[in-house]
Amino acid sequence: MKKKREEAELLGYKLLYNRTGNLVTERLSTDITQLKKYFSVEEYATLNTIVREATKKLDEVHSYIESNLNARKMDD
Is the model's pTM score more than 0.90? Predict the structure, then answer.
């Protein structure tokens, strides 16, 4: 029997290095609108703000890593 999960992954970021020597970034973002019915108006607004702000920061991290990798390629 499948166990019902108590939590859900709403946002995630992975930095991966594959066998061919490539660095890969992955960002997971969940559409939280489907979760709205499980929260009060205030809880949902807070969650929405947190996910939005965290997504912006992860995009900044992604851009920073990407720009450093591009600069490194130009130096080689």
Answer: no
